[in-house]
Amino acid sequence: xxxxxxxxxxxxxxxxxxxxxxxxxxxxxxxxxxxxxxxxxxxxxxxxxxxxxxxxxxxxxxxxxxxxxxxxxxxxxxxxxxxxxxxxxxxxxxxxxxxxxxxxxxxxxxxxxxxxxxxxxxxxxxxxxxxxxxxxxxxxxxxxxxxxxxxxxxxxxxxxxxxxxxxxxxxxxxxxxxxxxxxxxxxxxxxxxxxxxxxxxxxxxxxxxxxxxxxxxxxxxxxxxxxxxxxxxxxxxxxxxxxxxxxxxxxxxxxxxxxxxxxxxxxxxxxxxxxxxxxxxxxxxxxxxxx
Length: 291
Hints:
Layout: E1 2-4, E2 13-19, H1 25-35, E3 38-42, E4 62-66, E5 69-74, E6 77-80, H2 93-109, E7 113-118, H3 121-128, E8 131-132, H4 140-147, H5 151-161, H6 163-168, H7 174-187, E9 196-197, E10 203-209, H8 213-230, H9 232-241, H10 260-263, H11 269-287
Parallel strand pairs: 2-7, 2-10, 3-6, 3-7
Antiparallel strand pairs: 1-10, 4-5, 5-6, 8-9
Helix pairs in contact: 2-3, 4-7, 5-7, 8-11
């Protein structure tokens, strides 16, 4: 499935590869980047974190010098916005938008093809549509107070300060609800009114990868079984020992939070894996709403 998002041939060419988790984006991106002399910008909100390789299904590579700076390489293909952020820190869609544009321009200046690859719909949409995103830094104190409240209570508050966001937001995603409230309160303007489409910066070809539901579910189950063999439980234990909290965005994502009850002695490993498989399939279904 392809889509020519912009057709201005004077703009630098760029390819977006998007799709659900476990759909095969990584293999296609490596093949195409090698074939067309490209470099890859990751659009995955979980693979940005260091120390979190197994639960994020990160393609393992290595950091090595590329000119005067270090770059993450998978084989001979340079990757950006992957494996760079401490798990205790935050990274907003606005930051992704700015960083992705910077790296795409850098790649184009080298006469290479930028590939933006991932399954985080908000990241891809902010980049492709060149959204002018809210520039409001995360406020830890405000977020802690929000975390103590129920989703229902937060939604009632959001309906008052930003009814448009309240109408379209994923009402099960507490992190996004909190972000919409945070931006609306701290800026004094509704979050929804601060996301405006900008002028196109690239001539973009979008490639969407879609697998049949049964095939995708088999891939998800196989990937999760492989995570256990690779040591996902040990990876999480190591993160907890380093004082990374379950409440952090990094630790509350799919692939990590599902093991909390198991590690706290409340359920078996088999139950945790069953929960992870079920929630990953649900997550893959939700990704389609973006694509």
